[in-house]
Write a structure and sequence with these properties.
The chain is an alpha+beta fold. It folds into 2 domains: 36 residues; 119 residues, Rieske [2Fe-2S] iron-sulphur domain (Rieske Iron-sulfur Protein), CATH 2.102.10.10. It contains 2 helices and 11 strands. The strands form 3 sheets. Strands 1-2-11-10 form a 4-stranded antiparallel sheet. A 4-stranded antiparallel sheet has the order 6-7-8-9, with no helix packed on it. Strands 3-4-5 form a 3-stranded antiparallel sheet, with no helix packed on it. Strand 6 and strand 7 form a beta hairpin. The termini are far apart. The relative contact order is 0.16.
């Protein structure tokens, strides 16, 4: 009789483990999507790979084309952005990702290496390295996407909420 109890207990535990494994496998695609930044709850995100971290880790901004891809890998949107690494202390820093579009009349700003600023060639608006407006006619700062940038597998990525 003791053998039957042990066998029944074994089958009960095995069935529980099989159920837990099936549930974990069913949840895996959602976990992968959430980790990739493509979906969080009911929000969907597009993701752009901005380049390899080792190629972007410079003091001056690098202009890159961000091609935002949907969950199926199709290009859903694109934008040129400036990327740079800002050192904060010995082993700390942050990625700064700024739009390249002037907030006056939507011309593309250029980085002026001699002055260390972004300058709009159309009407002369100027922005500092953090995208803050320092000279008009623009009344707004450059859009800052830094909070949506993250490193993954040696690449810098940028996420954007999907347009419906």
């Amino acid at each position: 009789m003791a053998d039957n109890v042990d066998r029944r207990e074994f089958l009960r535990v095995a069935a529980g483990l099989a159920t837990a494994g099936a549930l974990a496998r069913a949840a895996l695609p959602v976990a992968v999507l959430a980790e990739d930044g493509r979906q969080e709850g009911d929000k969907e995100f597009w993701v752009a790979t901005l380049g390899k971290v080792k190629h972007l880790n410079e003091k001056k901004p690098v202009l890159v084309k961000a091609e935002f891809k949907d969950g199926e890998g199709r290009v859903a949107d694109d934008e040129k952005v400036y990327v740079r690494w800002e050192y904060i202390s010995k082993n700390k820093g942050r990625w700064i990702v700024l739009s390249s579009i002037c907030q006056h009349l939507k011309c593309m700003v250029k980085y002026a290496d001699d002055d260390g600023i972004f300058r709009c060639p159309c009407h002369g608006s100027e922005y500092d390295l953090d995208g803050m407006k320092t000279k008009g006619p623009s009344k707004k700062d450059l859009p800052d996407y830094s909070a949506d940038a993250y490193e993954e597998d040696g690449s810098l990525k940028l996420r954007r909420e999907a347009e419906k």
